[in-house]
Here is the input.
Amino acid sequence: MSDFTVADLKRILQAGDGIDCEVDLESDLDPNTSFAEHGFDSLAVLELTNRIEREYGISVEDGGLEYENTPREVVDYVNALLAEARV
Here is the structure.
C-alpha cells in the first residue's frame, strides 16, 4: 500500500461535502493551515475520516482527525496508521 499524500487528501476532500465553495483546493489548501482556518466544517472532516477509512482499510479512532488539524497533520496521522497496518 502506498503512502497517503496531500494530493490524496485533496482528491478525497473534493469528492466530499461540507467544503466551503470558496476554497480552491488546488491553489488555496495550505498544508500547514488548519481545516477550520480554510473554512472546512466538522462535517467535511467527518466525511474525510469515513472516506479514508473505506479507501485505505484503516480505522481512525474518535478524535483522531479534527477540523483543528492541518492537512499536513492529517497526512502524517494517516501514514502512521498505514505503517501500523503493514506490521
